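Milestone M4 deliverable, item 7.
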Amino acid sequence: MQKQILLLALLLIGIIPFPGSSKVPVKGVEAQVTNIVPVDRDALISFAKSFLGTPYHFASSNPKKGFDCSGFVNFVFRNFKINLPRSSREFKTMGKDLKPEEFKVGDVVVFRSFRNKARIGHVGIICEANGMHSKFIHSATSQKRGVVISNLASGTYVHRFFRCIDVIESK
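Output delivered:
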């Protein structure tokens, strides 16, 4: 009986994964995939696109208020039971870098800060994969823009590009 209570407690606090769940190995941060079936990347992007036009709101992951960049990425993936960092800076060492020809819909694209190139300042989600000409959906800091789709090859983003990572468990 004590073993059953201990096991239940460990399951509930996340030390032992629930049956059918798996851990995505990530350097520095551990994203957890708790769904049994692989994530449908196209469904993830369709869900993300349903928030196009949502205003930018600093430090928010609430679709009723608006999103900042990491809040939007976190919100979208959380809907598919993938827990990602809430801060764009935490994506700096997370996962493994992808080569441009490996970019897929649903991968996370990470950018340097405008002011300090050593810091991470922005994240988005690849929605049309085409190497360094991919398009990505993100929440742009301009309150007039909010959630938009941008081209990675545009001057605003190509010079700030830091890396692209796959955070979806591959089956």
